[in-house]
Write a structure and sequence with these properties.
15% strand; four-stranded parallel β-sheet; Rossmann fold; Iso_Racemase_Enz_sf; 260 residues; globular; 40% helix; 2 domains
Amino acid sequence: MSRRRWVTGDPGVVNTMDFSSLPRLGVVVPPENPTVEPEFTRLAGDIMRVYSSRFPLVVGEELQQVLHAWNVALPEILSNFGSLELDATVVACSASHYLLDPEGDRDFCDQLSGRLGFPVQSSTQAILACCASLGITELTLVSPYEPWLTELSRSFWEKAGITVDRVIPVPAGDRFDPYSVTTDKIVEEVSGGDIDDDGPLLFTGTGMFTLEALDQLSRRTDRVLLTSNLASVWWGLKVTALPHEESELHPLLRRLRPER
């Protein structure tokens, strides 16, 4: 059940120093993902608390079978939060939800939300919600994935009604490994294109560290810069309806205002 309680003398103001009163965002993470918790915590700052649970380690299977197994395991993984009262939860694994297509992904999240009594959202649906808020119908995809998974990602967005006008691959040296991509590599690959274009950039995948790269790129372009983790935190703040000053938000979240 959603907590919806803020400890403060003024009903319109949250005492952000009272950590126990802040919204609680659950997050489900692939077992070897090093990125989600630190990026969520950095983005959420002092206005939301983050609690994580991890998918099981699946050994000896191809990646597509692993992703399918995680979708099957997700209801049980969510139950591992036990009696911890959460206001919302994000499934921070884009790749497994690409397998479901947009409609199946949305239905799956709706079923989980109904079962648990609080909103459950995938990072992919969080991205779609953010794109809808910003009026995004076309974007450039920045992908650290293997080619087949990049193509699955492109197909997902296009089935959701978003045109992918270009794909920028971001390998980690001579292989594709989101967890090993460096900030310099991201900036190099994106800057190799036309950074002065005005189309949005979507950096897909929750495992690629992006915040430092986005900080550098945001100084050079007014393009919308969107990532799986950034959109997920944006959704978490939105769905918990936390009263806050804009100045409290991370600068990358402030860039996602519709009016810009």
